[in-house]
Amino acid sequence: MSETSTEQPAAAPAGAASTDAPVIIRTVHLKKEYDRKGVITQALRGVDMTIHSSEFIAVMGPSGSGKSTFFNMIGGLDSPSSGRVFIDEVDVAQLSAGELAFLRCRKIGYIFQSYNLIQYQTALENVTTPMAFAGVDPDEARRRGMELLDLVGLKDRWFHRPIEMSGGQQQRVAIARSLANNPMILLADEPTANLDLRTGQEVLNILQRVNEEKQVTIICATHDHRMLSICDRLIWIRDGGIERIARRDEVNIEVGAIEGEEDE
Ligand SMILES: Nc1ncnc2c1ncn2[C@@H]1O[C@H](COP(=O)(O)OP(=O)(O)O)[C@@H](O)[C@H]1O
Ligand SMILES: [Mg+2]
């Protein structure tokens, strides 16, 4: 892969994880085709990827490259045309409807670019709703909801509704909600795309803290360069395929290459 490096000792192979933690997500030749009125789009063309527990992975790539499709597949939100997704070494396609619902509700947390909060609910209700689905006792849900809002710095916004909060505050509620049922995986699809620089930085800091303190595996699609300073590995997706995988330490020595990735 790297043709010019002379002084770098050959340690782990390029792009390999720097952890020996167990594998938590594995995709095997994952393909997704969309058929819209006879127009076929190959959104994923056979993606093989292995992600380890507690890794923080940034997924980069231009719009339309397949990032969200990749998310939907590993998050069990949509099914692949072919290929397999293993979560915790369980083949997602083999799960019953009930088991899949359990996976989505209890094991994976989701954060989207547009926050996707329930508008008529307060911040606290937005955070406790997934706990209600999981059968958590209401008093316990309320206590944990307050704790999570505190974690994301919204102690004083428990009873605000989304319309009464800034974008950054809404995204922080969405992060608290994603953690409601102590997921092992957090999927974030361009979480800072709608935020100004400073607010985006706050959101990244929270994600970093969640990763470090709670050991949650995070997979984050992003165009945000600052992700470079917090993620463990980066995956570049282009035209539905993996263009490159690199550890952060492999990228820091060639930041110029990253700058080029910004263009779309
Ligand atoms: N529901 C859909 N129906 C048809 N085409 C889709 C659908 N969702 C995504 N696509 C197409 O699949 C490709 C990958 O899209 P997406 O995964 O959303 O990319 P990204 O998140 O990187 O911007 C694009 O060409 C997009 O137009
Ligand atoms: Mg997308």
The CATH superfamily name of the domain at 23-116 and 184-255 is P-loop containing nucleotide triphosphate hydrolases
Mean pLDDT rating: 90
CATH-defined topology of the domain at 23-116 and 184-255 = Rossmann fold
Bound molecules: adenosine-5'-diphosphate, magnesium ion
Core attributes:
disordered C terminus; alpha/beta; 8 helices; 33% helix; 6-stranded mixed beta sheet; Rossmann fold
Can you characterise this structure?
With 264 residues, the protein is α/β, with parallel strands linked by helices. It has a domain at 23-116 and 184-255: 3-Layer(aba) Sandwich (Rossmann fold), CATH 3.40.50.300. The chain has helices spanning 67-74, 97-107, 123-133, 138-151, 167-178, 197-214, 248-252, 255-261, and strands spanning 23-36, 39-52, 56-60, 82-87, 90-91, 108-112, 185-189, 217-221, 233-238, 241-247. The strands form two sheets. It has a six-stranded mixed β-sheet, sandwiched between helices. The protein is globular. Adenosine-5'-diphosphate binds next to strand 1, strand 2 and helix 1.
